[in-house]
Recover the amino acids of this structure.
């Protein structure tokens, strides 16, 4: 779908400028003028409308017929590809011309409210009957009807053409201005993404100080623990070493979900030893979803927030669950805790674009996780946070089903 088709005429016009042009046009030509959208609804204020037409539009029935006539004439002009004239419901001559930009009709310009020849007795009698149908005083209505100007056919065509050209030009300027505004917004958003990535890269570099020495030391400690029959201690040290090694991966990288699940497995293994029965953890993740790609270190910060901000503060402890499932072309991962929940005001702040709650272990915030997912997959993906005080919090991560095609995981 073209971007332009998503916009309405009112989104792209400079209403004040157009109304000023219509006013000058009416003063110079004596014709009424107005701009309407594709359904015939007015976008600008009526300019130099006749007393007759204002009377008609003062009634619900008359206004309905008037909009219908305008829309019908507009479609006729679109079919013709330029200005077209016809009699409206009240047998008055109107002219319409389509407002077309990039092949899409956004609305119509309408002018006229004139006769090409003075009304005869039969026409005046039909006007009297219409007045009764609209609920108007027939004498007052017919008087206004007869005050309508009679102009040559060439006059309405020439002036209508002129107004059509000027209005189309103004609307094209409006569309270009709208495109420029959208481009600036997109550039600003991309800049925010890039700054977030640079910040994360800096954090990663800071944490890569002599990693080999660190891993070798941890492995030595784990082997020593095995030799001393301290198997649980050895497992914790191995889990810590694996978690640290994973956290040093290139952040500008996609990994299979299988690796992310392993990472939070190491993290939860350590935390369950630390908190013992205070915190219970459960991972329910279908094997068939493990092949899909996700930005590295997306899940661990979310699980960590559930424990630190949700369960750690709950006196009787609680549970955190990681649940994966698929729906249509997307993969969803819920991180659910039955902790203390989040106050509504705090939740509103978290959902604001620039608020970032940093994870204690990785330094990666919830907002940064959301930003990175949107950067890779688009604005239709990312995080959704729901919470209720005293009940718990659910963070839902949504990503598309993207698999590694054998050309590397980096984008």
């Amino acid at each position: 779908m073209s971007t332009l088709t998503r916009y309405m005429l009112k989104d792209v016009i400079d209403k004040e400028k157009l109304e000023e042009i219509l006013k000058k046009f009416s003063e110079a030509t004596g014709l009424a003028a107005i701009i309407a959208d594709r359904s015939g609804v007015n976008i600008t204020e009526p300019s130099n409308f006749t007393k007759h037409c204002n009377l008609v539009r003062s009634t619900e029935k008359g206004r309905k017929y008037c909009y219908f006539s305008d829309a019908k004439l507009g479609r006729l002009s679109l079919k013709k590809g330029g200005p077209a004239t016809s009699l409206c419901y009240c047998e008055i001559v109107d002219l319409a011309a389509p407002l077309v930009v990039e092949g899409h009709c956004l609305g119509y310009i309408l002018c006229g409210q004139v006769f090409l020849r003075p009304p005869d007795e039969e026409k005046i009698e039909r006007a009297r009957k219409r007045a009764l149908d609209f609920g108007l005083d027939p004498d007052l209505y017919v008087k206004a009807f007869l005050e309508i100007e009679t102009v040559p056919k060439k006059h309405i065509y020439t002036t209508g053409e002129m107004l059509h050209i000027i209005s189309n030009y103004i609307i094209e300027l409006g569309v270009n201005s709208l495109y420029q505004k959208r481009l600036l917004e997109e550039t600003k958003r991309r800049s925010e993404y890039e700054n977030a990535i640079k910040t994360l890269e800096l954090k990663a570099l800071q944490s890569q100080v002599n990693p080999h020495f660190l891993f070798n030391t941890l492995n030595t400690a784990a082997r020593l623990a095995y030799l001393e029959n301290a198997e649980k201690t050895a497992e914790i040290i191995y889990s810590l070493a694996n978690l640290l090694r994973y956290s040093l991966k290139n952040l500008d990288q996609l990994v299979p979900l299988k690796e992310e699940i392993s990472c939070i497995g190491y993290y939860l293994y350590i935390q369950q030893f630390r908190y013992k029965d205070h915190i219970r953890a459960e991972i329910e993740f279908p094997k068939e979803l493990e092949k899909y790609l996700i930005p590295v270190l997306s899940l661990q910060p979310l699980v960590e927030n559930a424990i630190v901000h949700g369960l750690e503060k709950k006196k009787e402890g609680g549970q955190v669950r990681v649940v994966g499932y698929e729906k249509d072309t997307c993969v969803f991962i819920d991180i659910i805790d039955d902790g203390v929940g989040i106050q509504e005001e705090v939740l509103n702040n978290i959902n604001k674009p620039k608020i970032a709650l940093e994870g204690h272990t990785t330094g990666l915030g919830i907002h940064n996780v959301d930003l990175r997912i949107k950067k890779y997959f688009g604005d239709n993906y990312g995080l959704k946070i729901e919470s209720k005080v005293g009940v718990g919090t659910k963070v839902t991560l949504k990503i598309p089903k993207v698999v590694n095609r054998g050309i590397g995981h980096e984008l």
About this structure: The chain has 13 helices and eleven strands. Residues 355-363, 407-411 have pLDDT under 50 and may be disordered. The longest strand covers residues 104-114. The radius of gyration is 34 Å.
